[in-house]
Amino acid sequence: MKRSNTQLPYSGKKGNALPGAIDRRKFLSYIGVAGTSAAVIAACSKNDNDNRPPAGSIDLGSGDIGILNYAYALEQLEAAFYTQVIASPFSGITANEQALLTDIRDHEVAHRDFFKAALGAKAIANLQVNFSAVNFGSRDSVLATAKAFEDLGVSAYNGAGQLLMDSNYLLLAGKIVSVEARHAALIRDLISNGTFADNTVIDANGLDLASKPADVLKAAAPFLKSVIFAGNLPAS
After folding, report:
1. How many whole angstroms separate alpha carbon 33 and alpha carbon 153?
2. Which contacts (CB < 8 Å, 24+ apart) does range 149-152 have?
3. DSSP 3-state assignment of 118?
4. Which tens digit of pLDDT belongs to each residue from 169-205?
5. Taking the complete model, does pTM exceed 0.85, yes or no?
6. Does the domain formed by 70-229 have CATH 3.40.30?
7. Residue boundaries of the structural domains of the chain
């Protein structure tokens, strides 16, 4: 696969792609993503006859831009979730849990804002989320949802890496997925200590799982009101 060196129109100097100042707690890990599922479309397989997005849907686009918008969509979902978690803490939350979840919120917000700034005019619109299935007052409900989002995010980045043509974007994805994996490990241990890397997310070769965009968007669909069309994403 031939890789180009084309870069998105980042604002700011090289090595400082994130807009604005971000303190250590806000981005300490950054180094240098049922009831309403029927209303959400995650079309990821190309139709040779008609590959136009349905009316009212949000088209992720094609090529590297499409993959970056795909990551941006996932980061929007995670940022919105953790923002709500901190805005209305679950019953019995400890000071340590509050601090850890605040850090994760700040990371996800930074990821979201990074993609929005980097994509510029090519960024998709803000997504409308649906968290009606989440009981934000319940620790079990919040952490179970966080676990699902973090595991999904890690497998999404792992699966999308091979679809990127620009090596600069691949490097960026690697930096972000490593942060998402830290989140996943932490959330898993908050639920059950020692499960941070169990065999539900690590295969027999000691490797993280990887998922295709179609499968990731299907899993995310119940938490979205927005209709996402991914039919123009690269398949290989």
Report:
1. 5
2. 149/77, 149/78, 149/81, 150/78, 150/180, 150/183, 150/184, 150/187, 151/184, 151/200, 151/201, 151/209, 152/74, 152/211, 152/216, 152/219, 152/220
3. helix
4. 999 999 999 999 999 999 999 999 999 999 999 999 9
5. no
6. no
7. 70-229
